[in-house]
Amino acid sequence: MSPAFAIIAGVGPGTGASVARRFALSYPVALLARNPDNYTSLVDEINKSGGKAIGISTDVSDAGSVKKAVEEAKEKFGDKCAAAVFNASGPFFRKSVLELTEREFVGSYEVSCKGAFLFSQQTLPLLLAHSKDSSAKHPGTLIFTGATASVKSNALMSSFSTGKYAMRALSQSIAREFAPQGVHVAHAIIDGVIDIPRTKEWLKDMPPEAKIEADAIAEAYWNLHTQSKRAFTNEIDIRPMLEKW
Amino acid sequence: MSPAFAIIAGVGPGTGASVARRFALSYPVALLARNPDNYTSLVDEINKSGGKAIGISTDVSDAGSVKKAVEEAKEKFGDKCAAAVFNASGPFFRKSVLELTEREFVGSYEVSCKGAFLFSQQTLPLLLAHSKDSSAKHPGTLIFTGATASVKSNALMSSFSTGKYAMRALSQSIAREFAPQGVHVAHAIIDGVIDIPRTKEWLKDMPPEAKIEADAIAEAYWNLHTQSKRAFTNEIDIRPMLEKW
Amino acid sequence: MSPAFAIIAGVGPGTGASVARRFALSYPVALLARNPDNYTSLVDEINKSGGKAIGISTDVSDAGSVKKAVEEAKEKFGDKCAAAVFNASGPFFRKSVLELTEREFVGSYEVSCKGAFLFSQQTLPLLLAHSKDSSAKHPGTLIFTGATASVKSNALMSSFSTGKYAMRALSQSIAREFAPQGVHVAHAIIDGVIDIPRTKEWLKDMPPEAKIEADAIAEAYWNLHTQSKRAFTNEIDIRPMLEKW
Amino acid sequence: MSPAFAIIAGVGPGTGASVARRFALSYPVALLARNPDNYTSLVDEINKSGGKAIGISTDVSDAGSVKKAVEEAKEKFGDKCAAAVFNASGPFFRKSVLELTEREFVGSYEVSCKGAFLFSQQTLPLLLAHSKDSSAKHPGTLIFTGATASVKSNALMSSFSTGKYAMRALSQSIAREFAPQGVHVAHAIIDGVIDIPRTKEWLKDMPPEAKIEADAIAEAYWNLHTQSKRAFTNEIDIRPMLEKW
User: Fold this and answer.
1) Which residue of A lies nearest to B180 if distances are taken between CA atoms?
2) Cβ C231–B239 below 8 Å, yes or no?
């Protein structure tokens, strides 16, 4: 196992947990979520099955909290980060522009974009260190989880989509700045319903291929991570075969 | 002259002033800028040349300030708004993601997106009222001024582009919500240097066609405003003939 | 009236006729269609109402036919072209990829893209001549009529959309080559049903604002034509207020 | 080894050969190129190293030739196709729209789009058969190799980009038609110079990370192929870390 670690922000029962498990097969993992309930049993599971994991309660929209979390991971796992995955989302509102409060409108940006910025600022130096380490197997990789709303902004979705469009802009700017220094930056457009406990009742008359499997997202992220410096993919979309788009 | 008015946020010596002059040919205009220096002489000029104008010192990133400004315009000019143009931009930083402060990073969003949201919330009821007025000559029109950075996010531009991508998402969501109610929402991608006092020294070895003329942007906005409900344009790009793109 | 003329390819009862009438207010117009029935009465109408028009039977997918048509227009109206509008479309098939014949698949490209290329090759020298004429009121303008299928390629639409995507690529390449020489090149994404005799029965339970008015497209094209060299718009979308997008 | 085979059109010394080698690790492969010199030694190499390969001289722009090629592959390897990769490109011209002959302009479309259509028509029934085979390890996968010119159409590039834009439209339409039937359709935007013998002298003062490694493209294609029906990626971009974009 490499001395580098992986860090995942926004660990919950879906994509975050799957990504954590997948990257834990190769790296110690630091799992960030605001609520420890979202990572406690997962940390146990990984540690019991031969991996190494720590959980850190973090508010990604708070600069101090993010700094502290990354420092804790660094103390524990060293100053090289092989992969940083930003998977957090703020509160979601389907509401008219006329009905959203300022707080509700801004909430999505606070997490999806400002949070992604704070997380990137703290992890990029460690990703750069890994990319410059000639013994590193794969380049340091920074992945952002986007959504349909990253590229299409529907009615009543202004809060969510402004945050997601902004995050996509951030990922592109970081890619253009840090790819020449060897860091692989990728943005994933998750276009469809992910099959998690919370969405159990959605699309329930449809076959399983109507929803995205979280483990399959994790596999796609791992494949991004293992791309060589001579073939970086900066954006992928992911959708189930039965999705209309 | 119709009883409806036009309101322009972000009035300065460039696009904002040109738009103000153009729309003042047909409507009373309310001109918003944080610093009264940006509108005082323009308000005089319009009032002296047969138009009607007021200036209102406004911080578009502050909900109370925007509300107060729109209420002042409403008291003065009535409760129908023919056109609302959001032309404000926050502070601009060309800086590495690693060097931006949180304050600097967020500043662009605060104006470009949150400001656009606050402005839209206050003006949409007046735009709807105008669109539903059968005597209105042109549908109520809400126009956002974007930039190259609304669709391309370069290195060192993360602050500016995240704000501009987010504003574009906002404009699309509002368009999809309010077009069916008769409000025309348009987003303009201004792709090039605008020829204003501040950019006098830029591209100065090039012919005038290397820069965009602010009056020509205003004309394009006017043409958007006069489109019928049966032919709304939701996005245009504008660039000078010598621009590389 | 300027000595320059306008030329419109793909004149039928909808957009083409409206564009012809609009540009005939300022220029002599040459109207191209394969079937003379599509322009005969329109030519009469324009000539009787104080304009100047000729109709030329043209197969835009045939190099010789296009060359002959433009030469005829040139002989009649001189060697300066103020505006060239490409509005032709090939046969339309809504069919599975597995059911389309090669002939059917290629038919859309033959008109929408190859035809647009042939038309551009013949008209660009005349547009350049006009743009370089210092007495010209507006820059020489080349406009292509695209569709929703220019940017979204749905199932069963492969023939139509491949032709339209290709035409959009052509328009962008021509814009980048000829804008620096003063020719304004624009592409219009017509996103919705145009209200013409053939679509009379479509959406008939909806209000008029569910369909695009052809005259309003023509007005938008005229507004593109009158843009200055310091503010070219290269792409617009046009849709009725009730369109879902 | 599964009874299904893979078929690659446009086998040359770069991407095609790498894809052939990669997929030959799991499937018998049929390699199509117009000139047998492009596959003869590769076929030998694969057969000698434990794989199975045949080469078939094919003009992808000719319906009869494509049909015959796919039938030959079917006779040899059975009626299930696990993966079909379209990697062919027509002749390339960097020329003004005014200087291109009709033949030159159309040449790119003939291969990139019409060829892709003919190849898809012949392979889709075999891909569907594979996707419906419950013993298939991975869904039938159809991959198209695009380029920077698939999404940006520069000056002097109209021939190449019209063909590539059209191919992208084709891939999207096929994806939307056949994904619900279980076929994975993907389009790859190869954005940069591929490191092949022909490009040896290009960018030679730059480090290797200025060019794309063909084997890395092949690995990305393999990763697309192995995605589950619950997480299809329909578009990826691929560029070397030092590429400007």
Assistant:
1) A155
2) yes
In a domain, A229, yes or no: yes
Structure tokens that stand for A179 in this block: 């790819």
Domain interval for residue C60: 5-238
Higher pLDDT, B124 or A3: B124
Mark yes or no for CB contact D164/C169 under 8 Å.
yes
The amino acid at residue D204 is K
Nearest chain D Cα distance for residue A130, angstroms: 15
What would the pLDDT profile of A103-145 be if each residue is shown by its tens digit? 999 999 999 999 999 999 999 999 999 999 999 999 999 999 9
Domain count, chain C: 1
Kindly state the average pLDDT of the residues B145-171: 98
Indicate whether D1 pLDDT > 70. no
CB contacts of B121 in chain A (<8 Å) are 97-98, 100
How far are the Cα atoms of B230, C117, C122, D11, D52 from residue B50, in angstroms, in the given order? 32, 50, 48, 72, 85
Q: What is the mean pLDDT of chain A?
A: 97
Give the three-class secondary structure for A8. strand
CB atoms within 10 A of CB C68: 15
Q: Give buried/exposed letters for D188-217 (b at 16+ CB in 10 A, else e).
A: bbbbbbbbbeeeeeebeeeeebbbbbbbbb
**Total number of residues shown for chain B:** 245
Domain presence at residue C244: no
Nearest to D101 by CA among C113, C118, C171, C119: C118
- Cβ <8 Å between C229 and B241: yes
Distance from C-alpha of C17 to C-alpha of C87, rounded to nearest angstrom: 10
ipTM of model over 0.90: yes
pLDDT digits (tens, 9 = 90+) for C141-164: 999 999 999 999 999 999 999 999
Rounded to the nearest 5 degrees, what angle is found at the Cα of D122, between the Cα atoms of D117 and D125?
Answer: 115
Instruction: Find the CATH number of the domain harbouring C130.
Output: 3.40.50.720
Quick check: B231 and C238 CB within 8 A?
Answer: yes
Q: How many CB pairs under 8 A join B and C?
A: 102
- Answer whether residue C245 is part of any domain: no
On whether residue C15 sits in a domain, the answer given is: yes
